[in-house]
Amino acid sequence: MTASQVTGKWTKVLDAEILQRSSQVVAVVDNVAHVFGGELRPREPRDNDVHTIVLNGTSSTSTIAKPSTPEVPSPRVGSASTTLDKKIYLFSGRGGLAMSPIDEAGAVWEFTPQTSSWSLITPASAIHPPPRSYHCMTSDGTDTLYLHAGCPETGRLSDLWAFRLSTREWTPLASAPDPPRGGTSIAFADGALYRMNGFDGKSEQGGCVDVYSPEANTWSSYEFVADGVRGPEARSVSALLPVRIGGRVALVTLFGERDPSALGHQGAGKMLDDVWVFDVEDRSWRRVDVQGAERPCARGWFAADVLGEDAIVVQGGLDESNGRLGDVWILSF
């Protein structure tokens, strides 16, 4: 990654009606994207199948991973997922007509792609996070899942929790800087946890990268000018993903909602179509110069994950006309 420019190229992998959805999750394991949850019509979870897409070029197809276990997560929207040791982890979300947070007493769903099996990990700790939706998750790649923020039954949260898989224990950590928010994003890179963006109930948040140190259990913040020129504009329901570009650790943020809809979760606001890279070492932003004419439309409420070390996958979401998208894209740096 040079000081002047970062380039990237979009490749459309697939577009399928069965994948049309927003507020879903996607997790990549061994070059296979696994899509779960989301809605086609507002406030109606679409299904609880695991849709798999082999990311082997432009001839990919979507298939459903038939579960080998009788117990599977209920249909839900606004959930959050992460991967660790080639397994996928999922926590809470909204479901049912009332769209209340799904309360599973702090349990975490674990999906093993190799066997298409689900298991529900019940926490051994007496305390656990409250149920929520439009939260975010990531892992440290070793033994710990991180869960942050989102929307409980009422209001929004700024809490941070760690779930250690080896002991099945939840630990409450230092809360992130206010305001509490939903639709925010976190990523783990270079030994630290990074958080940005989100919606506090009145406006989109931006202009700040908040950094959590696991060793010190403290947060620090880097401010930037969120004008779309020197740094990305404020947004929510976007993404934040760790990559390596030119051998350097970086974070990618892209797309998202800039102005909320008056209809809330039932409508689409103003969406963004830009991609930005944050160099972790020098704390600088660069807008990605997209090569070629092919690129995804502006969207929010989509799903995204890292592919390898220097590419990301984007699936579905909500466009500005309030339509659910069923496409799959790869952005290579």
UniProtKB/TrEMBL annotation:
Spans annotated as Disordered: 60-79
Under Pfam families, the record lists: Kelch_KLHDC2_KLHL20_DRC7
What are the UniProt keywords, alphabetically?
A: Iron, Repeat
Superkingdom of source: Eukaryota
Q: Which InterPro entries match?
A: Kelch-typ_b-propeller
GO biological process terms, alphabetically, are: glucosinolate metabolic process
Specify the protein name: Nitrile-specifier protein 5
Task: Specify the species.
Answer: Aspergillus lentulus
